[in-house]
Amino acid sequence: MDNLSVDLIIQLLVQLLTEQKILMSSVRHSVLSDIGEALIYMIFPLKWTVVYIPYIYMGCIHVIQSPSPYLIGMDSRFFDFFRLPPNGGIAYLDLDTNNFKPPLAPGQPIFDSKVLPKKPLKQLKTRLLELKEKIFQMKNTRKTSSKMIPRNMMLDCMFSTSNSDLAQDELIKVRKRTQIGSCIKEAFLQFMVHLLKDYRLCLEPVRNSQTDVMFNIERK
Predict the structure, then answer these.
(1) Residue-wise over 17-29: b if at least 16 C-beta within 10 A, else e?
(2) Which residues form the UDENN domain (predicted)?
(3) Gap between the Cα atoms of 14 and 114, Å rounded
(4) Is the pLDDT of residue 213 over 60?
């Protein structure tokens, strides 16, 4: 959530649930992996079973022309050598600028947050905004305290005793970050529970079907 706004997170959630082709770019390769993993876990208990490549190399870049859904990360500098195909139906996210372009293709509808149930979506956005504010406060606290801590803070933490004030302070911060991460997972899980509520009623067992699903043949 450090890198993405709440509205952008919701937009990406829609793209995942509707199985779009999603292309992310950044010069920071670690960010590509972190965001990619976070996006996949947003739709739990559903699974992203199609193509997922956290970072793709230049020699394999032709994969983005695949007609099937995917989630792929790439270096932003690749655009010095090629351009995305126009109207290729690719949802593009620039993680360095937070610029998002929805997938455009002839005859393909553009999905946005309006396709999601309103009440659960509102609850999710409210909760994410609260957690994002907590993250912002933690970052500000760390910036303020870093002005008072010497440059060798990491070394001090490594070689200080476990009950020292510095070690205890860092331990508290780690616990807070872990707690916020758990709250984010819980918020998305609650949303998915609402989304999949009564989903079983929309399924028709194969044995009750009037036709053979596999071969589309009417049963006698």
Answers:
(1) beebbbbbbbeee
(2) 1-220
(3) 9
(4) no
105 burial class (0-12, 13-18, 19+ CB within 10 angstroms)? middle
Give mean pLDDT, residues 137-144: 69
Global confidence as pTM? 0.78
Our CA dihedral for 208, 209, 213, 218, rounded to 10 degrees, sits at 130
Question: Is the model's pLDDT at 207 over the cut of 80?
Answer: no
Q: How high is the pLDDT of residue 219?
A: 47
CA angle 14, 71, 45 (to 5 degrees): 55
Report d(CA 171, CA 162) in Å as an integer.
10
Tokens representing 102 are 């929805």
Name every residue whose Cβ is closer than 8 Å to that of residue 138 and which is 6 or more positions away in sequence. 173, 176, 177, 180
Token couple for 165: 């004030």
CA-to-CA separations, 71 to 58, 104, 129, in angstroms, rounded: 16, 16, 25
Q: In which order are the strands placed within the sheet that holds 99-101?
A: 51-53, 70-74, 21-25, 90-94, 99-101
Distance of CA 122 to the CA centre of its chain: 18
